[in-house]
Each structure stands twice: as C-alpha cells, then as structure tokens.
Amino acid sequence: MTDDTMKDLVTKHDLTITQLVQSVEHLVTAQTETNKRLEEISGFLAKQAVFTSRLETMDKELRDSFKRVHKRVDEIENLQKTDTGCNSVKLLHKDVESLTKDTTRLVGAVEENRIMYEKLKSTQDKSPPPALIKWVISLMLAYSIMFGTYVVQTFSKLEQTNALIVTKLERDIKDTMVLSELVRILDRKVVKYEKLEK
Q1: Alpha-carbon span 198 to 192, nearest angstrom
Q2: What is the pLDDT of residue 89?
Q3: Distance in angstroms (rounded) separating the CA atoms of residues 93 and 100
Q4: CB-based contacts of 128: which residues, under 8 Å, 6+ apart?
Q5: Which residues neighbour 84 within 8 Å (Cβ) at sequence distance 6 or greater?
Q6: Residue 79 — left, alpha, or beta (φ > 0 → left; ψ -120 to 50 → alpha)?
Q7: What digits encode the pLDDT tens for the residues 142-174?
Q8: Are 86 and 79 in contact (CB under 8 A)?
Q9: pLDDT tens digit sequence for 123-149
C-alpha cells in the first residue's frame, strides 16, 4: 500500500471514528436526557403512588365515617320513632298540645267576637241612618235656640211688666199713703167737727 492510499484510508477511518465519536456523544446526550425524563417520571410515579395511597386512605376513612354517621342517624331515628322519644321531642309535643289548646281557645274567642259583631251590625242596621240623626239633632238644636230666644224675650217682657207693675204699685202705695193720711186728717177733722157739733 502506498502512502496515499494509506492516508486516504486513515482519513476515511478518521472520519468514520469522528462520526462514531459524535454518534456516541449524541447517544450519551440522548441517554442523559432520557435518564432525566425517567427520573422525572419516577418522581411523578412516586407522587402518584402517594396520592393513590392517600386517596385509598381517605376513601376508607370516609366509608367508615359514613357508616358511623348512618349508624348514629339510625339510632336517633329509632329513638325518635318510639313513644318515649328524647326530652326535646317530649317538650315539643307538650308545646304543640299547649299551642293547640291556645288555638282552640282563640278560635272560640274569635267566634264569640264574630257573633257579637253580627249582633252589633244587625242593631246598627235597625237604627236610623247617621244622616237622619244629624238632621234630627240639627232640628232639635234649631228648635232649642228658637225656644231659648222665646224664653229670653218672654222673661224680658215679664221683667218689663214687673217693672211697670212695681212702678204702679209704688205709685198706688204712695197714693194709698196719701189717701190714708187724708183719711186720717179727715177723720180727725170729722171727730173735731163732731165734737164741735156736740
């Protein structure tokens, strides 16, 4: 082999080796990337396993919890359905009975009030209408005013008549006194005259 052939051969081998080195480097890089992704996937799988375990635990605890709750609810329901029941149910039953009695009493009172209202309504319907009552009161008031005026005028006339009578009586009394005096004087004179004639 000649040198040129050898060189060409070495160059070809060198190129092939370089390509092999690049391929190996590329393979190492890809392997590293794959290893990273596998680590991430294994991390996710570990988390998934933790989540799955927690979910299973929660599911189991929820099932147990619901069993306990249903058991308690069933016990309470059985207790409530019995005649004795719990104290609060007994108190509520007594309150319901008391309210029923109060309601019955109130219904009776309302019925009595309704009957009384109907009686008052019938009495009111039988009575004269308010307009007529107003007219009667107005007429009575007018009559009272006219009668009062008549009475006042009559008293005024009576006072005038009384004053006139009093004046006449006083005059008559004076006249009577004067006449009495004259009669006395005349009596004295008659007595004197009779004495003289005797």
Answers
A1: 10
A2: 65
A3: 10
A4: 136
A5: 90
A6: alpha
A7: 988 998 899 999 989 999 998 999 898 888 888
A8: yes
A9: 877 877 778 888 889 999 998 899 889
In the numeric block, which tokens belong to residue 93?
């039953």
Length of the chain: 198
Single-letter amino acid, residue 76: I
Query: Which of 120, 101, 124 shows the shortest CA–CA distance to 112?
Result: 120
Report H helices in the chain. 3-81, 87-126, 130-197
Q: Are 168 and 176 in contact (CB under 8 A)?
A: no
Q: What is the pLDDT of residues 72-87, one digit of tens each?
A: 888 877 777 776 666 6
| 85 φψ region: left (φ > 0), alpha (ψ -120 to 50), beta (else) | left
- 86 contacts 80 by C-beta, under 8 angstroms: yes
Whole-structure pTM value: 0.29
